[in-house]
Structure formats: structure tokens, C-alpha cells
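**Backbone description:**
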Amino acid sequence: MSPIQIALLLLAVAGVWAVIELALTLRKTRTVVDSLDQTVGDLNNTLAEVQPVVAKLDGAVDELTPALAQVEPLLKSSKTAVDALTSNLVEVEAVVRDISEVTGSVAEASNAVSSVTDSAAGAVQKLFNKVKAPAADADRKLATAAEAEQPTEHVLIGEAEDEAADGADTAQKPADKPAQYYTYTPAETSEESCDE
């Protein structure tokens, strides 16, 4: 075989191989084009379903346009209301400040009246104490004299009461508990009644 024949044979094999590759590529391209057609059909269906929603949204926007036009005056009126409220709060603050000043003045006047009243009451009390003092001193002297004349009572408290009643000596008591005595005088009750 000559080199030209070998070259032709190689060219023929390369051509067959190229045709086979082209056929395989066309087959893949056809599959891709079919899936692309199906996707475009799905998109068309979706757009057909979305069109009524878009139409409804257009209608809603058309209905909202007058409402949006009314929002601006509402905002202006609310700004006016806020300004009025602010001025009212400033006035309330001034009134509260005036009330606190008046309250402070009233408190000072009340303190002054209270101090005058207290000093007057103290003077009257001193006057009455001077009048009562001689009478109270006489009563006190009589009570002291009556107290000196009356004997005092001693009461024994504890386990040794029975022994004391029998006339037993206090030295015979047990060493662990000392005797306890309380002294009651009838003059204490008469003194309390004099103080009242």
C-alpha cells in the first residue's frame, strides 16, 4: 500500500468517527431541546395562571391609590394633634410647677402656725403646772407619810413557801435555790391614784 492509500484509509476512518460523534451530539441536542420546550410550556402555563393575580393586584393598587392620597392629610392632622398635645403638656408642667410652689408656701405657713400654737400650748401648760404644783406637793407629802406608817408585806416565792408558812428558818432551805422575796406596799397603789 502506498502512503496515499493509507492516508485515505485514515481519513475514511476519521470521517466515520466524526459522523458517529455528530449523530450522538445531535441526539443529545434533541433531548435538551425537548426538555427546553417542556420548560417553556410550563412557564407559559405559569404565566397564564399568574395573569389573573396580576390583574387583581393592579385593581388593588388602583383601590389603594385614593386611600394613599388620604394618608397625607391624616399625617398632617396627626402632626397638628401631636403639636397641640405637646403645648398642653407644657401648660400642665407650668400648672404643676405653680401648684408645687403654692404647696411649699402652704407648708411653710402651716409650720409657722404649728410653731406658734406649740409655743402657746407650752406657755399654758407651764401656767397650769405652776398652779397644780403646790396641790400635788401636798398630796405627795401625805402619801409619803401614809406609806411610812403602814408595814410592808414580804412574800416568799419558791419551793420553801410551805416551810416559811410553818415558821421554818430560811437557813434550812436547799442551797441550790435561794429564796426570792417580793415586797408589796399598799402605798404604791394610793400613789398611783394620786398621780392620775
